[in-house]
Amino acid sequence: MGDDQRFVRFLRDRIGLDVASVGPALIERAVAQRSQATHARNLDAYWTLLQGSAAEQQALIEAVIVPETWFMRYPESFAALCKVAKARLAERPGVALRILSLPCSTGEEPYSIAMALLDAGLAPQQFSVDGVDISPISIGRATRAIYGRNSFRGAPLTFRDRHFAATDDGYLLDPQVRAQVRLQVGNILDPLLLTGELAYDFVFCRNLLIYFDLPTQQQVFEVLKKHTREDGALFIGPAEGSLLARLGMRPIGIAQSFAFVRDRQATPAPTPVTPAPARLQMPIKLLPEPGRQPLRSRTRAPTQPVANTDEAVASDGAGLLAQIARLANEGKSADAQAACDAFLRSHGPDPQVFYWLGLLSDVGGQVLQAQGYYRKSLYLDPQHAEALAHLAMLLTAQGDIAGARRLQERAARSDRPQVQEHKR
């Protein structure tokens, strides 16, 4: 495709896609695939066809957005949802909860929401779930509700025994769960999206913002806020919390929930120039990714307990990591910082700890210090996806678009080594 940016601009305007988030090679392959499928003589001919065909425009979008999702992904989020949902029902007895999954892909997320709430004891009449996605093909698969093994990952999978029936084609979802979910096609950039719908108590929009440039992120955030009740909660992806913290949101205080509410004491940053200080709370996931082991260069005994904590610093690395997570999730930023320092003294440099130090500095408004910690994390682990994503956000806010895009490309490659995981 070379220097031909027509298709990049088309995808940016239609679905808000930032090419750096998925890499230009993916878009080039998609354009070449569709050009060949339509027997276009060259790219000019295909561009002309694209402009005059709504069906081909959708086909190109489908070729670019290759969704990958599975049931009960980020299980802590669903546990947190059940907890706050029960509290909300107790506050408003007789008023059914409204929940939105956007984008809902092939249905795993909205159906997971329904299964989790039913398993938590909620009655069917106490909640409803809306699932919206830009892809008619994905909505069709979600409506069919038959899933293969790839949709079931991790353990335990006991929910599959409760809510699915094995068939020759895969696992068929129980009609009771399907009845809780209403599916429809929609584009989050469409001004008429969900027109006439009441605001939702809880909105799930996970791993979407990371695919947009900063102006589009802010535009989409306003859409999400519009469709979330004033006292509602927004569930996002692990790498998106830093952005929300700067846009006037705060964590709900449940570890690894990735859920945010409006922070009426905060002032959102009006322009993407310099990140404004946010509340000293950890906005995103803290525990290490499954399978990621700390990188250690030496081992020593811890020297002293963390100041101002209610218990001594654990002597083992896992205990220290868990303590950092607990302190940060409780909003004890200074104590979390001290726990990080204690870990580094006793166990040596670690990419995850430097990443946490970056987050603590980031949400505290210490931008340059945050950059330094993120870079230390990447020095030890060049493909640390979260450090890449957050450092890219900071560079974008400072106007270093080229540097941010290089980092976004690295983050996209590390997060999706083989299959492009793109929840639009």
TrEMBL record:
Protein name (Swiss-Prot/TrEMBL): Chemotaxis protein CheR
Q: Which Pfam families match?
A: CheR
Q: What Gene3D superfamilies does the entry give?
A: Tetratricopeptide repeat domain (1.25.40.10), Vaccinia Virus protein VP39 (3.40.50.150)
Q: Which SUPFAM superfamilies match?
A: Chemotaxis receptor methyltransferase CheR, N-terminal domain, S-adenosyl-L-methionine-dependent methyltransferases, TPR-like
- In its keyword annotation, does this UniProt entry include Transferase? yes
UniProt keywords, alphabetically = Methyltransferase, S-adenosyl-L-methionine, TPR repeat, Transferase
Occurrences of domain CheR-type methyltransferase (ranges):
1-240
Q: Name one GO molecular function term.
A: S-adenosylmethionine-dependent methyltransferase activity
First and last residues of every TPR repeat = 351-384
